[in-house]
Amino acid sequence: MLLDTNKHKGLRNQLVATIKAKGIKDKNVLDAIGKIPRHVFMDSGFIDFAYQDNAFPIAADQTISQPYTVAFQTELLQVKPNDKVLEIGTGSGYQTAILIELKAEVYSIERQKELFTKTKVFLPKVGYVPKKLVFGDGYLGIPEYAPFDGIIVTAGAPFVPKSLLSQLKIGGKLVIPVGENIQKMTVFIRKGEKEFEKHEHGDFRFVPLLKDSRK
Ligand code: SAH
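A: This is the predicted complex of the input protein with S-adenosyl-L-homocysteine.
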């Protein structure tokens, strides 16, 4: 296991200051970023980059999202303790760990077998135990565990999957970057059975939410 040293903690404090300066206000989110050793979620050769506010390559052509983006999406989700949260795109498990740090009950889906297997073993080893990790297609959500208080999509969606909207509780929120090359961070709040409020929050760039190649 990779060590978390005072040097790492110092770098993490600087990262928290950076994303705070960029506009993140939620204290619980900032505390979670300050607490989680992001460097252990990255391959060892890249440790020096772990506390820069940038996305970084992980396995299978995917990336660990930029800390500011993780913080921004998490702030929009407004997680409360014991909320049931569904994450689409487990990847490195870093966003999963942030949600667990906020005391959510986390369900997460990943379509890349290599990442799914690696992260499933890794997360509990570093003390973060999700409620359920699923290998499958995030476009479908997980109907058998729905409804969710929050759903967070961590890849760029070309459109808003109806199945995800339908798996929200009334009052629940979907945070999803929508678009092909550049994505608009979009929040849907479920107001009623068929009633959704929509808010847009600026442009981001994610790896694409891919269709399940196994089908
Ligand atoms: N939350 C991750 C971000 C990883 S990048 C982290 O913090 O590291 C986006 C992830 O979404 C990738 O791991 C990618 O494989 C996954 N992904 C892409 N399309 C998907 C789909 N249809 N279903 C589930 N996961 C998907």
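The pocket of S-adenosyl-L-homocysteine is lined by residues 62-65, 88-89, 91-92, 94-95, 109-112, 115, 137-139, 154-155, 207, 209-210, 212 (CB under 6 Å). The first strand starts at residue 56 and ends at 57.
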